[in-house]
Amino acid sequence: MATVSKKSDTVELLERGLIGGRARWVADLREFFRRFRIGDTTFDLYARGGTRNRGFLMSRFFAWSALPNYDVALLCISSESVRPGLTSEKLRKVIDDVLYLVRKEELKWAWLIVFLNSTVPAWGVSLVSRYDRQELGLSLASTTTGQVVVSANQIGRSIRKQLGLDKLIERIMHDKVN
To answer: Is residue 108 part of a domain?
Structure first.
């Protein structure tokens, strides 16, 4: 098992899990981009796809006939990518950039994951836990303490359940100790 020591490794682990189908019950993410830029913000990972998956025969028929085909996305950024450091104003700017992408690409919803190399600040816990816009699910995850905070909306809660963010952070914490 490879050790995780840098933000790129954390993003790479998330990307490998997504490619392997980690989020497939909710979204079939098919296109992956690194260093994706929106305005002044450069995201470490941008993945997009749809809610209708490409299963085998019967599941494909069921998906085609019963499930809506919404375009969705996942964006990931680390605190190292936001210079000179992540503040509440900078996080709000990142959120605004993601909402701009949602409107521009006509996405039904998007996930935004922010990896921190420090503890999750109190303002971050407050901002994320109170966030209630339905088209964006937010998460702040500390790769040093293991703390994960997600928004209370349905899309935010699915970050924890469907993406397995808690398990990813546990793996990172375990690799850092060993």
So the answer is: yes
What does each of the 178 residues of the chain score in pLDDT, given as a tens digit?
444 444 458 888 787 877 676 655 567 788 899 999 998 899 999 999 887 666 555 555 655 566 677 889 999 999 887 767 889 999 999 999 999 999 999 999 999 999 998 899 999 999 999 998 999 999 999 988 999 999 999 999 988 887 778 888 888 877 776 6
Range of the domain at 163: 7-177
What is the overall mean pLDDT for the chain? Answer: 83
Q: Count the residues in the chain.
A: 178
Residue with tokens 């397995």: 164
The answer as to whether 1 is a domain residue is no
User: Which residue's structure tokens are 């209708």?
Assistant: 52
39 is a domain residue = yes
Closest listed residue to residue 45, CA positions, set 33, 58, 31: 33
Residue 47 lies in a domain: yes
Number of domains in the chain: 1
